[in-house]
Amino acid sequence: MKIILLLVLFGTSAHAAELTFKLDSGKSVKMTELRERTLLLNSSCVKNSEPSDCKAWKLAQVSSATGIHPQGGQEPGALVCAKLGGRVQIAKDSRNNEEAFCGFSDGSLISCGSLYAIALKNSLKP
Amino acid sequence: MGLITGILLAIWAVTGVQADTCSPIRLDQGDGPMAGMPIRSQGSLGICYAYVASQLNDCWEGQKLKRAANISSAAANATIKPSSALYASIGSSLDPRQKNLTKCPDRRKNGDFDLLVDGGRTCVAVETLAKSGSCSDDLVNEIISEQLESSKFTRPSAAALAEAEKGILESKTGIEENQKSIEKTTAILAKLPRSDFYYNSLKDNLVIYQANLKIHEGNLKIYEERKQQASTTPSQEANSVRALYDESKLVQACPQMDRCPRVPDKTNPPQPNILSVVARAILEDMKQKFDQGGCAKSSELNPTDCKLECDHRNFFSKSSLKARIHEALERPNPMPIGISICAAIIRSEATLNLWQKEVAQPGSTIPAFPEPGASWKNHPFCEPHAVLIVGRQKNPLTQKCQLVIRNSWGSVCERMATCTSASCSCEKDTGQLLIDEELVAENTWDIQTVPSPFNEKSCK
Asked: What pTM was computed for the model?
């Protein structure tokens, strides 16, 4: 029983890994990876390993990837972010690899890649 | 029998040669020059060429350090602070060779206009960095944050918008009231004999009402302009860079582009490209801000005796392009290779499905997509992009030669929305893209190579 409990706990934590990023403004931010790394939200936007009530998540649900055609190698998710009225911020992980985040007025953040994936899914709905 | 043996030998020889030309090379692993170098993310900045240029520059600096200090590439690269692609793009956009490249992009109406997009060539950016020096990404971000905090560049805030709206309302009320007073007074004056006691005082009032009307009309114009500036939608503020310059100047300059004849003739002599002049002034202002903030000092790092040079070549033949890539990867102390490609080849299958919906819309003029593996270069959805080749290997499933590509969209495959097909996949542990060389060759315009400091006598 204990083993099963441990496995469940371990399994849950594996699906909600917390990572620290440094924003280009110099501030640190804690982000949580969900759904096999496809979704990255700031930790205050996640409750019980699920996205919670924050602007980043709410707006992602109504986002669209239709008509997104980047120029000069722009990241597609960054353009979706702009359409939603968010602000693109570049953050660095512990290995100094960069990732673009979309930030909103309530302080919530979502990875631009995650945002694009959600927008794409929304746009492909029949 | 002899003929069959000959054919079999020929096939063996050809496949043998192919195997040799795709022996694994990884510049991002082991002691390769890109080992340990962080993967970049360009966000909404359309300056892919500058991201390639800054990485070529950083790789060069890392290899110089490796040579001088006799340390590993990873140790050297860990010491090198990533250089700012933004600073590289500003410097290269100011290069005299780029003066005619800044155009009036019609896409600004969609709110995704980026001033620096049009001015970019990888080798020009590399040479600018070699000539006038790079500036670290950290320092550039620090300067941007400082400037934004002190509101030196930011556009009017919400308070300014409210103030402008209040001013517009007051001006409109003033205009209305004075127009009414003018009408009323004019009507009375028309009926009143000139000899009447009130005639002159009413006439004086009329002059005052007319003057007030002009003031309110003038104020209305000013407040409407302020409102336009303050009404900049968040989408136009999508990145810090756009907050660094006053886009309204460009908005004003764009319509004047019509005055510039596209085909100069005797009756319509060529005139200076107004937008280029404005854009240049803005870029110079931005560069000055960065240099005053410390970039000029950090630019003194590049010694002149060991100078980075960039070789740009256009290719019209797939075979010569591939030969050049392999030759560059196989040379002693290889360096990463910059290429200009169609980003359409790295987009996910889901994205292509969405694009198909756009193509299929009634009245759409978008041409059909090229066959799988064919060129996107003439398709409007090509999305020209610049990336780095950092290796080659055989596709374990198909045995075809694939190139290891370093993009600038982050490092986590699961969140990159790229490469989800057999001919283009994402390497989970490294975030690098693995693309069949045939697909790359079909969709590449030009390549940029730089020497290794290990091969340059001047770098000893």
From this structure: 0.78
